[in-house]
């Protein structure tokens, strides 16, 4: 496909750009295959706006006489307005933007065309390999091994080719456990707490169903992380009632009889459309144009966003507390193990491990706990707070995690190597980027 | 009383047992704990309410709420003792004579001269001169020299030159409590001014020629503008209701060239209830997010703060951008008017954003113009309906501005908190009584000490490390965001939950920066010493070798206060040192440091004024500077924390 086919009017002059808190600027608008470019072309203080089409969340157009106005709402929450003289130009541009911002083929995305203008110092794709992580781990313990059971993604399509598992469990057992866990996501090591040798594992829900199916290998696997005579904690990110209902659909939870050494704690972390609605309401409240203080607080309250933040932080603190304070191993899962589970395991690491509070360490954490762990970025970040379509896969799961990090940062302003800007940058790139890092839904697709 | 339990609001497990003492000035609780014997001191004048609750099996609970937002829950074993304590405190917390207040017995061990110096620190004459008056347009008037015209005004007031004594007296008779229009702030740059008064006694149709002349005189004192704004800070409905009582507001038709404007700030009763509601939210044991947000909204507190700020912004804009003079009033002109005038001055003039300037501002707009400190803050037993957090709101406005302009203020949050504390403490004489007249009659300056001198002495504790007087933000008018960004107004937990350390951020960037600053300064001093030494060495080296051994001896002495300075002679090594310094942050301080997300952190750099035992000795603020004591860094603090991981209370 040629992008040119979608661009009927590649350029319009005398366009006026409006942005909140900025003066309006007049200039020229250009459309390319991947960008909307606006240039004021003023010699003294030339201002340029480059907006990725993939960053566009929604677009509205309206006309007053022959003056068309396009309001573009971006996934990074920006809102810009373009006044374009000429109805035809405006219609053309609007329809081009609409088409270009909703391309459905990943391979047409900008990262496949982008050539960096800077000198590439290291191969980012191999900067954070699990093998290196394992090497570090091996220097303190020999209870774990690297398994390549998933090297062709056949055991678990959303897992990376290599995972870290207890040494005593062989690949054959892992295959059996995978059949017993939702989406094949068998328990793997997420974090090893050097201070006391306790481990945090993550997985998806066990497929116990209504008749209480069990899997010996699964029990053996999770028990392999326990010290003799010690108990572990299963942190289920769903409330008990939801977990019980899941049994009707073949899912379920670890029952005491089969996992006597484990204590199960249910937390309530919201997911999917509830989060998405909350996000939409929050952004609405932020954009409220009234000068009314009460409206802001009640809208903020009604969005429930901060409640979700608090619940998530509480669950992450619980996991960290179990490991550090109780000296217990922990297994975290929800249903699929690709959303709330990863939020909890990654936040717990931020709390427990100073390394994760450095720039490099945080990047490693994102690669390990989000990208390799199979958080479906493409589905979750397809739309942001301004989308009109009600697809059920979008959810600001990653954003919620970033805000929790920010909240911890507020409490411990001297404990992080990075600043707010770093978190904002990650948020932006998760939704629209020139880099391929957040493309696709898992390692297999990537 | 022995075996009293001091409860922790958030966790029943953290109650401590100790002994309760009542003195003439303080309630003191001393923990039994063998080593620490931590003490909690509460001034009687800080007590706002005492509540005896139903006796339980463990004893008789007593709830003490303080004006500085501390809440103390005691359980006294014997009902009889509890009753005695209760009765005593009720009496002690409500003195009936000024002489009973703490400032008359407080003795910081200063001699007479030092005391007098202290009172001279803030000089309003100097301040008016700094503003640029008297000049061609404004003069000092002695019409009120023996408080003959208005007993709540100062003796010296600035009025337009063209306003004769006849006009002033005539105008004063047409204003509530005879509070005639007087100068609050003069803008040298464009002659625009902020004047203040009380409401006119206009009723439905009354007029007063002198009052009309007075306003005209104010307008004429600003030749650059052909009108003035008259800002009534009340909601229109309230102002209209006042007309029925023979009061009211200016009729634009009767005054030449005024533009009249209502700015709806609610009255003291609404504000009192609003604070009450907000404090109820602060006291919730484990509020859900929505309990908190709903409660905060329902209290209306932030809405009121924003209303005051908006009024200040309006006036500052009129003065700085339009060059138009403004006359501000409410009903009596001593509450909302004081708030609004001082917020506007603070926005307009960078001087008021310095430590000294802020003291001057409070002295000018609040103390001298008869803000009724005694009535509003209940220093003496009085009508509870007179009590209202008027200056608290102003202080919060300042804090909200500090959040928006972190580099524009010379002082920090602690400065504000300590001023708030002392407005209620009655430890210093500054805020006693309701007017200058009363204070002079009581001979406050001879019998008590000035807070300003006390704060000034400890000014290092109150410095904002981000402030630079040459920074652009520190100069000129502040322009707060007025676009609809309601989220700019935040709940001030540092004030309203200040005694609950567990709710506050675990690390303070301010304290850390202060420590860095101090360390840098030390290193620079050291560098100077060493450079001097180097120069001496070079001089003597060319001389004889005998001196050399002596020099080595001396270098040992230097080694006492910095370990490696004999090696680090080159600038490079020093800069390396400086670079590594900030990295001694808590994150790297300890290899396996888990973040402590919750639980009360006993170590805090903020001294709870009342919780410190050394108030009387005058050394209360020493504990302020734990992170900056010499080379000791905050990382030490956090390093200790790192071993224990404590988690969100949920």
Global mean pLDDT of chain B: 84
- Helix share of residues of chain A? 25-40%
Give the beta-strand count of chain B: 14
Please give the share of residues in helix of chain B.
40-55%
Characterize the main sheet of chain A: 7 strands, antiparallel
Helix-strand sequence of chain A: EEEEEEEHHEEHEEHEHEHHHEHHHHH
How far apart the termini of chain A lie comes to 22 Å
SS-based class of chain B: alpha+beta
Rg over CA atoms of chain A? 24 Å
The CATH architecture of the largest domain in chain A: Alpha-Beta Complex
Number of domains of chain B: 2
CATH superfamily of the largest domain in chain A: Protein tyrosine phosphatase superfamily
Tell me the Rg of chain B in angstroms. 28 Å
Oligomer: heterodimer
Q: Total helix count of chain A?
A: 13
Major sheet of chain A: order of its strands? 4-3-2-1-7-6-5
Structure report:
Chain A: GO terms for molecular function: protein phosphatase binding. Chain A: It is a peripheral membrane protein. Chain A: Residues 124-446 form the Myotubularin phosphatase domain. Chain A: It is found in: Cell projection, Ruffle membrane; Cytoplasm, Perinuclear region; Endoplasmic reticulum. The complex is a heterodimer of chains A (446) and B (650). With 446 residues, chain A is α+β, with helices and mostly antiparallel strands. Chain A folds into 2 domains: 3-103, Pleckstrin-homology domain (PH domain)/Phosphotyrosine-binding domain (PTB) (PH-domain like, Roll), CATH 2.30.29.30; 145-431, Alpha-Beta Complex (Protein-Tyrosine Phosphatase, Chain A), CATH 3.90.190.10. Chain A has helices at 87-100, 130-138, 171-180, 216-223, 240-248, 272-286, 293-303, 305-324, 340-352, 359-371, 377-380, 397-411, 420-431; strands at 11-18, 25-31, 35-39, 48-52, 56-64, 67-74, 79-85, 144-147, 163-166, 188-193, 198-202, 232-236, 262-266, 330-333. In chain A, the strands form 3 sheets. Chain A has a 7-stranded antiparallel β-sheet, covered by helices on one side. Chain A has a 5-stranded mixed β-sheet with strand order 10-11-14-12-13, covered by helices on one side. Chain A is elongated, with a radius of gyration of 24 Å. Chain A starts with 10 loop residues before the first strand and ends in a 15-residue tail after the last helix. The relative contact order of chain A is 0.11. Chain B has 650 residues and is an alpha+beta fold. Chain B has 2 domains: 4-94, Pleckstrin-homology domain (PH domain)/Phosphotyrosine-binding domain (PTB) (PH-domain like); 124-511, no CATH class. Chain B is built from 23 helices and 14 strands. Chain B has helices spanning 79-92, 112-120, 124-131, 165-173, 209-220, 236-243, 268-283, 289-299, 301-322, 336-348, 355-368, 373-376, 390-404, 413-425, 436-442, 444-447, 451-457, 493-496, 509-541, 546-561, 571-580, 586-589, 634-643; strands at residues 4-7, 16-22, 26-31, 39-43, 47-52, 60-66, 71-76, 138-141, 157-160, 182-186, 193-197, 228-232, 258-262, 326-329. Chain B has a 7-stranded antiparallel β-sheet, with helices on one face. The two termini of chain B are 35 Å apart. At the A-B interface, helix 7, helix 8, helix 9 and helix 12 of A face helix 8, helix 9, helix 22 and helix 23 of B.
